[in-house]
Specification:
Layout: H1 3-23, E1 28-32, H2 41-46, E2 52-62, E3 65-69, H3 85-94, E4 98-105, E5 109-110, H4 115-129, E6 149-154, H5 161-179, E7 184-187, H6 199-202, E8 209-213, H7 228-240, E9 245-251, H8 264-275, E10 281-287, H9 289-295, H10 297-312, H11 318-333, H12 337-342
Parallel strand pairs: 1-2, 1-10, 2-4, 2-5, 4-6, 6-7, 7-8, 8-9, 9-10
Antiparallel strand pairs: 2-3
């Protein structure tokens, strides 16, 4: 890498410090929608805690099924009340929070049966939630909201998600070329590597962010006082996804998953120092907003990290410089990725 390219490291570090001070010490993605009693989408974004909010879930699709949006008690898609979320989505986006639609989830009322099925689903997602124009067959369940992308939370082995990723990316590129808007493709695989449901899709190299679920799987998650299993799995994931930023996915409270919860102090002192070493580390993902509201994990973590950063002078270490130089080397070979990394 040229000296000129690395010269910009100090500039990017300064920008990173400013962003960190303004929005918190770590980028957090969170899932919202499966508990109607834990606050609105607008409330979630107004906390200032999250960089990404995944609307959970489009829980039924494929194999001849009519797609079904399930946001629990927040709204009722058949009666049209989910269109009221458009105002909240716009306020989130105005606050630089990316709002995505997560497809799949734990209900398992979905699968893709063929390449044409994947093509049809991509068109449905585009026309109903993203940049597609309203027209025949487009109901726009979220009103005039235009979401920032699609998240794959596929929890049952299935084929053709690689086709879905390619089809969505093709639609994304057309919109970017025409209107200049960029869209995200993200995924939430289980931590055993490679993921049984998404290995082929992730193998396309088309995903911007991948929030790996390091929970409910003891062989690849944190164990009290022992980061060995997590560290090994983390290295596999970050090495296997060089074109994506990788997030550490965790339950937001002990009640949010059967295992894998990590408290804020342990996260800051033992886990994050280990995962931050990857050049494509992106932040953390939490399941979910309702559990995070109960436990205040993200609030506690941001506080702990900000105190740590004040005492250590975060953002100025040679380690951070090496990480950004690696990013610059990568985007120098593919300038289009600059937009992805900056999101």
């Amino acid at each position: 890498m040229s000296g000129k390219l690395c010269f910009f490291t100090s500039v990017l570090l300064s920008m990173s410090v400013v962003a960190t001070a303004a929005s918190g010490a770590v980028n957090i993605a969170v899932y919202w929608g499966q508990n109607g009693s834990k606050g609105t989408l607008g409330d979630t974004c107004r906390t200032g805690l999250y960089a990404y909010v995944n609307l959970a879930f489009l829980s039924m699709f494929g194999a001849g099924r009519a797609p079904v949006l399930n946001l629990a008690d927040h709204c009722d898609p058949p009666s049209g009340t989910c269109a009221s979320l458009a105002t909240d989505i716009a306020s989130c986006q105005a606050a630089s929070v990316k709002v995505l639609l997560s497809i799949g989830g734990g209900a398992l009322g979905y699968n893709l049966s063929s390449p044409s099925d994947a093509l049809d689903l991509a068109a449905y997602l585009w026309d109903n939630f993203l940049g597609g124009a309203s027209g025949a067959g487009a109901s726009r369940p979220l009103g005039d909201a235009v979401l920032d992308g699609v998240d794959f939370d596929i929890e049952a082995p299935s084929r053709f998600y690689d086709e879905l990723a390619r089809n969505l990316t093709s639609l994304y590129k057309g919109a970017t070329a025409t209107w200049g808007k960029t869209y995200l493709l993200t995924a939430a695989p289980q931590c055993p590597y490679p993921d049984a449901s998404l290995a082929a899709a992730l193998g396309t190299g088309l995903f911007d962010h991948v929030w790996v679920q390091f929970y409910n799987n003891p062989p690849c998650q944190y164990a009290p006082g022992d980061v060995t299993a997590l560290q090994s799995a983390w290295k596999q994931w970050t090495a296997g996804l060089p074109a994506a930023t990788v997030f550490l996915g965790l339950p937001a409270s002990p009640d949010a998953a059967g295992s894998g919860f990590v408290d804020a102090d342990t996260l800051a002192s033992q886990v994050l120092p280990m995962v931050e070493g990857a050049a494509n580390y992106g932040g953390i993902m939490l399941w979910s907003r309702s559990y995070d509201k109960d436990s205040s994990l993200s609030v506690k973590l941001q506080s702990v990290l900000q105190n740590r950063n004040k005492s250590t002078g975060a953002g100025t270490s040679s380690h951070n410089k090496r990480r950004i130089c690696k990013w610059l080397a990568f985007v120098h070979s593919d300038p289009l990725r600059i937009a992805v990394i900056s999101r």
